[in-house]
Write a structure and sequence with these properties.
Elements lengths: L2 E6 L29 E4 L2 E7 L7 E6 L5 E6 L3 E6 L6 E6 L5 E6 L5 E6 L7 E5 L18 E4 L7 E4 L10 E6 L5 E6 L4 E5 L5 E4 L10 E6 L5 E6 L3 E7 L5 E8 L10 E7 L2 E6 L4 E5 L8 E3 L6 E6 L6 E6 L4 E5 L3 E6 L9 E5 L2 E5 L17 E6 L5 E6 L4 E5 L8 E3 L7 E8 L2 E6 L4 E5 L4
Antiparallel strand pairs: 1-37, 2-3, 4-5, 5-6, 6-7, 8-9, 9-10, 11-12, 13-14, 14-15, 15-16, 17-18, 18-19, 19-20, 21-22, 22-23, 23-24, 25-26, 26-27, 27-28, 29-30, 31-32, 32-33, 33-34, 35-36, 36-37
Length: 455
Amino acid sequence: MPLLSETYACVPTTERGRGILISGGPKSNSPLHQSISPHLNLDNPLDVSVYGDHGYQATVARYSPNGEWIASADVSGTVRIWGAYNDHVLKKEFKVLSGRIDDLQWSPDGLRIVACGDGKGKSLVRAFMWDSGTNVGEFDGHSRRVLSCAFKPTRPFRIVTCGRIFWDHSNFVNCIRFSPDGSKFISVSSDKKGILFDGKTGEKIGELSSEDSHKGSIYAVSWSPDGKQVLTVSADKSAKVWEICDDGNGKLKKTLTCSGSGGVDDMLVGCLWQNDYLVTVSLGGTISIFSASDLDKSPRQISGHMKNVTSLAVLKNVPKTILSSSYDGLIVKWIQGIGYNCKLQRKESSQIKCLAAVEEEIVTSGFDNKVKLKNMLYHTARINCLAWSPDSSMVATGSLDTCVIIYEVDKPASSRMTIKGAHLGGVYGLAFTGELSLVSSGEDACIRVWRLSPQ
């Protein structure tokens, strides 16, 4: 039976003008993002787990306070609660809102969940018991979509929400978060401001310095574990670390910048302060990881595909180097055992159907090419790709039925190896990286490396 040895995860799905809200685990350095809810280990980027059981596009995911459960939500207004480890067993599923859920938070005791987003009438925020779905409160005050919510981490518990207009802001409020001790909370907005409030009374107590402020919309904010600093990200392509003074105002400590293409894809739309890591996410999906203890150190960057990965190729002269191309025309280079290496620059951004690497050149074909493959007996849907092993002793096929089947040419078909559910939505790319190593890609925008063990 083939065993999964590596996964190169998809990047967060982003949208211009909209921030994304990512969260971290209480027991590990594993942040969650919303693209089919992967959780990625910052200490080892190859340690990736993906949950793909939502019927619609996932929008947000959060660990429970004890780290055992994850609540994730999608554009249909559904919340699913599932195990954080092993097979991600589904615990509960609730239809919470009639429209997209933009944010959700667990109560500090792990018994309640609050979710907010879009819906009908006043049904824009809902708090419910995590095990029964029973409502635990009514929420008024919003007439339009609610973008973010937060649970006060200390008793007495309180919930704050934000959306179109919020107190001293003059534009959309994109994110709101309580400090770890619950004494204050901060909101950030498209008006380029960050405002701090008293955690008990809700009164304004300060602002992030206007002299060093962002020059574009602020999309997300995250507190340091000790509650003395915050991290913000903006459409101006920068991240800023602020010291929160005793008077409640924020003083700029450091502006963080990331290398990029120089275009709109470098806008920063999400952030997380996870222990000693500062994590930012760009509009193009690049994840930059800074060290909180050494802000001058260059960040480590992780990226990948956001769209369906349609083709794979392995450099014959460097067998552990994998090239993958996605529906949007992006080509990514991966190193087996390491993961993401870089994005390859192209003069045009046309869609790619097929990719091949010949010595130092890359050959691509677009969607205007027509290639037909005769269906094979053991797949239940169309075959999308095929690959031969280096010694031509095995052939692998990938199909719309989500399966990969590996045949040994000198053995009967009954000895075939089948990888069921290799990629959610179908398998679109295959390549051998060695005699017993196979890499696959698919609709879920992930790359997976399999270790084969023939019978």
